[in-house]
Design goal:
The chain has 240 residues and is mainly β. It is built from four helices and 18 strands. The strands form four sheets. Strands 1-2-15-14-16-12-13 form a seven-stranded antiparallel β-sheet. A five-stranded antiparallel β-sheet has the order 8-7-11-9-10, with no helix packed on it. It starts with 8 loop residues before the first helix and ends with a strand.
């Protein structure tokens, strides 16, 4: 059983959760969609010793020690060796890694790429990298990745074309009412299928975060999260 398959009734009463379990010949695989308010979302890269958290479990223990009740943990944008974000990382109004406007190979550099963020007044946004203007005093958190999957309720050109390569994937979207959609698939699916999941969930904009190594969980208090490939930034959803 995938570790995402357990959700408590109390969490369901606060946030809209869909868990779709799909059985296959070898194991049970999970598609996971979580919708939440912007004020419940935070982003984390380094601890108070200036070292990347790397593991969801390390961040879980730190946040629980501070008295927070966790609903979701998920890796954020694409990153480089040494667990450094490939692009923009803003945490509590501070830019810890700058916007990346370079060209290159791979998903991050596939145009259009973009930025997911939340402003000081708790408005979530997803915007093309070329249109992003950084003002630390206005932006509470941000992560950069690529490619964009949906813009103004329409699949992007790359999302329409990417129907063959299949990987596990995770991403983020924003609904018309301002709520945030997180989707994780341990099931290997195409980028096109993944983008259409956001359309069906009501996203007006959506951004691909990562694939193949992606992980997400609804943590149980005090219960260890299984080890995984080390990450850079991690997104957290806390309960009010």
């Amino acid at each position: 059983m995938n570790f995402l398959s357990k959700v408590t009734i109390s969490k369901c009463s606060l946030l809209f959760i869909i868990l779709l379990l799909i059985s296959c010949s070898s194991s049970e695989q999970t598609l996971f969609t979580y919708v939440t308010a912007p004020e419940q979302v935070t982003i984390h890269w380094k601890d108070n010793q200036d070292k990347p958290y790397k593991q969801l479990e390390y961040l879980r223990t730190e946040l629980e020690k501070s008295g927070q009740s966790l609903a979701v943990l998920m890796n954020a944008g694409i990153y480089e060796p040494g667990e450094t974000p490939t692009g923009l990382h803003i945490q509590q109004y501070e830019t810890l890694n700058p916007l990346n406007t370079n060209s290159g190979d791979g998903n991050f550099y596939t145009k259009p790429n973009g930025v997911f963020g939340i402003t000081k007044d708790q408005k979530a946004f997803i915007i093309e990298t070329s249109e992003f203007e950084n003002n630390d005093s206005d932006i509470r958190l941000a992560t950069q990745s690529g490619p964009l999957l949906i813009q103004k309720s329409q699949l992007t050109a790359i999302a329409k074309k990417a129907t063959e390569s299949e990987f596990s994937r995770n991403g983020v979207g924003v609904k018309a009412d301002g709520r945030i959609i997180f989707i994780y698939s341990s099931n290997e699916i195409s980028l096109n299928d993944f983008a259409n999941m956001f359309l069906k969930a009501g996203a007006v904009d959506a951004l691909y975060l990562d694939g193949a190594i992606s992980k997400a969980t609804t943590p149980e208090p005090g219960k260890k999260i299984q080890d995984h490939t080390d990450f850079a930034a991690i997104l957290a959803v806390t309960e009010p």
